Amino acid sequence: MQTVAIEKVNDYGRDEVKAGLVRLLAPLGGMAAFVRPGERVLLKPNMLYGKPPEAAVTTHPEVLRG
User: Fold this and answer.
1) What distance in Å separates the CA atoms of residue 61 and residue 52, rounded to the nearest whole number?
2) pLDDT tens for residues 2-23?
3) What is the 3-state secondary structure (H, E, C) of the chain?
4) Is the distance from CB of 62 to CB of 17 less than 8 angstroms?
5) How many secondary structure helices (H) and strands (E) does the chain include?
6) Are 7 and 24 in contact (CB under 8 A)?
């Protein structure tokens, strides 16, 4: 059985998104359950079209930044 986590944020403000990501990962063991200090990670965003973030076609840059 797989575990799925979903977290809603009210807007794409930097602090709001980062806090949402922390809440999202907490039940799964936090970021430390997936990445150890010093490791490198590749994040693959959805890049469907060259549209602005407000169009909700691609992964919002604040999600990647968080």
Assistant:
1) 10
2) 888 899 999 999 999 999 999 9
3) CCCCCCCCCCCCCHHHHHHHHHHHHHHHCCHHHCCCCCCCCCCCCCCCCCCCHHHCCCCCHHHHHC
4) yes
5) 2, 0
6) yes
Q: What is the reported pTM?
A: 0.79
Q: Say if residues 64 and 13 touch (Cβ distance below 8 Å).
A: no
Separation between Cα atoms, residue 16 and residue 64, nearest integer Å? 13
The two structure tokens encoding residue 28: 């799964």
Model confidence over 29-43: pLDDT tens digits?
A: 999 999 999 999 998
CA 20 to chain centre: 8
